[in-house]
Design goal:
The complex is a heterodimer of chains A (108) and B (115). With 108 residues, chain A is mainly β. Chain A has no helices and eleven strands. Chain B contains no helices and eleven strands. The chains are: A mainly beta (108), B mainly beta (115).
Chain lengths: 108, 115
């Protein structure tokens, strides 16, 4: 099956800093989503982005499908950005495969 | 729109008992729902795909007799952990695809502790 790798696994940021999270996948995909899992476990959908670039406030994402990677940018980070960020993809069929996640801690 | 409600959020049960977790699509019909399991500090692993009106499709290594899935209506899927043991303690999350939107929406998860 498709492999999804996220980097870095852990990230510590000072409040106000910018960062880039990366998601590499091993095959062509027809669905790619970025999620933020909060401390209570809820998965919040950040972006549906199988290709192209999208922005939502301080977050933006870019997927280069031909090169099989996606990037999530966090600008002017805040403590509320802490949590785990997951990339998930769908190749054939309807199953989402998750990457290992990036655990982000934003310090005040 | 596209809200998925999952209950209970937390449950503690005794070893050997069964626990049922419900996943409801509140404002849309979901012919397919998905059940995931997440261990502490790990990613989500797909357990099974729940199909309305038919049998669930289980991933390799998931015991279908232990994790019973029922999808009797277009808005409700249930996961029953039968004869639970401490090693079944985990975070269980359901999801559904969003008609008219893109991507998948997730429930808030159920933290199961078997004592």
């Amino acid at each position: 099956g498709i492999q999804v790798e996220q980097s870095p696994p852990d990230l510590i940021l000072q409040e106000g800093a910018n960062s880039t999270l990366r998601c590499n996948f091993s095959d062509s995909v027809n669905n790619l989503q970025w999620f933020h899992q909060n401390p209570w476990g809820q998965l919040i959908n950040l972006f549906y982005i199988p290709s192209g670039t999208k922005q939502n406030g301080r977050l933006s994402a870019t997927t280069v499908a031909t090169e099989r990677y996606s990037l999530l940018y966090i600008s002017s980070s805040q403590t509320t950005d802490s949590g785990v960020y997951f990339c998930a993809v769908r190749a054939a069929g309807n199953k989402l495969t998750f990457g290992g996640g990036t655990r982000v801690l934003v310090k005040p | 729109g596209a809200v998925v409600s999952q209950h209970p959020s937390r449950v503690i049960c005794k070893s050997g008992t069964s626990v049922k977790i419900e996943c409801r699509s509140l404002d849309f019909q979901a012919t397919t729902m998905f059940w995931y399991r997440q261990f502490p500090k790990q990613s989500l692993m797909l357990m099974a795909t729940s199909n309305e009106g038919s049998k669930a499709t289980y991933e390799q290594g998931v015991e279908k007799d232990k994790f019973l899935i029922n999808h009797a209506s277009l808005t409700l899927s249930t996961l029953t952990v039968t004869s639970a043991h401490p090693e079944d303690s985990s975070f269980y999350i359901c999801s559904a695809s969003n008609p008219g939107q893109y991507g998948y929406t997730f429930g808030s998860g159920t933290r199961l502790t078997v004592v």
